[in-house]
Amino acid sequence: MEHNIDLSGYAIRTDLALEAHELAQQRQPQGGPIPGVRIETDDSEAGIKVTRLAVESEEAGQQIGKLPGHYITIEVPKLRDNDTAVEERVAQRFAREFARFLRELGITEEKKALVVGLGNWNVTPDALGPMVVENLLVTRHLFTLAPESVEDGYREVSALSPGVLGITGIETSEIIYGVVEKSRPDFVICIDALASRALHRVNTTIQISDTGIHPGSGVGNKRKAIDEKTLGIPVIAIGVPTVVFASTIVNDAITYLLGHFGQSMQESNRPASKLAMSSLPERKEPYTEEDLPDMEARKTFLGLVGSLPEEEKRQLIHEVLRPLGQDLVVTPKEVDDFIEGVANVLATGLNQSLHRAVNGQNSAAYTH
Questions:
Q1: How far apart are CA 147 and CA 237, in angstroms?
Q2: φ/ψ of residue 236, rounded to 5
Q3: Which DSSP symbol is given to 226?
Q4: C-alpha to C-alpha distance for 74 and 209, rounded to whole angstroms
Q5: Is 49 helix (H, G, I), strand (E, B) or coil?
Q6: What pLDDT is recorded for position 215?
Q7: Which is nearest to 55 in space by CA: 45, 70, 44, 40?
Q8: Closest CA to 161 of 145, 138, 181
């Protein structure tokens, strides 16, 4: 007897356009390209992978579940290691990518910026936005009160941490709209923590987009959008995934287990391995389809679950955990150090890309 399970109601949530594109590509015949989506990858700098993704039509946006626009994803696996040298390199690369992003949007040096740090400063994994704002070089008050003291090379920048609906009782978009209406910036930069569908991207990835942002969307809270349509000026979103769903952890654990088995089987078949006392393969992150055993071996190790396609397996785990109330939102235990480090990375990069007078040599003077 066949049992058909409808899994359509258990959509996989991700804030990263790169992951949404990967999911959509899996649904394509032979994993082919998606019409209306242009993607290019740059891994010329060691340890840093930059992916530029452009969604060029409404149809393409509906297919991958993202709004038409431009998305830049910076992936740095070693960013989670709390390595100061790595953070400095990422800050410089982020500054270059963001400055290029501004130029491509036609935002010149004289345009006034409002930087909004979204999130709840009382919850560590959600405190990214407010912590970045703390380290920003804000200059609007100087341009207003003492313009003669402002040297060449600085832009008019203001900043705001509006809190969350549960603290203020006011929709974040309404607060920002009121500030935009009174202070009249030329564009808005929103910074927020995101949710990922892959363990290896938590605390290692930075996304830049020109499609605005939906506060709380990563954890399923639907809020009014903050975008060009609602504010009337360009809105650039910057996000870092700091949380992941429990269903993702279970799914990735199964994938890592199969990947480990697959690598062990490959190692054991090599003649050199037969002479070794122990030949545990080095862990690979993330595992790809080529690293996993064949379907027969997967069934042997994990039965029917092991042979399910990636998306069905993930949705099935979500279906099992959700009625139990166990589809938790999880963050790594080192999140305190990471949030502080990546907030400094983003603030340093923003200071350099917004102010021509700030560069790699003097940027440390403006952050703490």
A1: 29
A2: -105, 130
A3: B
A4: 12
A5: strand
A6: 65
A7: 70
A8: 138
pLDDT tens per residue, range 303-324: 777 777 766 777 777 777 766 6
The answer to whether residue 117 scores a pLDDT higher than 70 is yes
259 against 126, higher pLDDT: 126
- The span from the CA of 258 to the CA of 140, in Å, is 55
CA-based nearest residue to 101, from 193, 226, 187: 187
Alpha-carbon 4 to chain mean position: 34
Decide: 92 and 62 in contact? Cβ < 8 Å: no
Of 39-53, 126-140, 199-213, 238-252, the poorest mean pLDDT is in 238-252
Token pair for residue 11?
């959509």
Which two three-digit tokens encode residue 44?
């010329």
Q: CA dihedral defined by 75, 321, 329, 248, rounded to 10 degrees? A: -10
Q: How far apart are CA 12 and CA 247, in angstroms?
A: 10
The C-alpha angle 363, 233, 169, rounded to 5 degrees, equals 85
Least confident range of 124-128, 134-138, 204-208, 218-222: 218-222
Pairwise CA distance, residues 301 & 259, whole Å: 11
Rounded to an integer, what distance in angstroms lies between the CA atom of residue 338 and that of residue 242? 9
Mean pLDDT of the chain: 84
Give CA angle at 189 (183, 193), nearest 5°: 130
Alpha-carbon gap, residue 287 to 310, rounded angstroms = 12
* 199 DSSP 8-state letter: G
Give the separation between CA 247 and CA 312, rounded to whole angstroms.
12
Q: At what angle do helices 295-307 and 246-268 cross, to 10 degrees?
A: 170
Q: Is 181 exposed, middle or buried (0-12, 13-18, 19+ CB in 10 A)?
A: exposed
Q: What is the pLDDT of residue 9?
A: 42
**Of the candidates 221, 204, 274, the residue with the CA atom closest to the CA atom of residue 49:** 204
**Separation CA 303–CA 301 (nearest Å):** 6
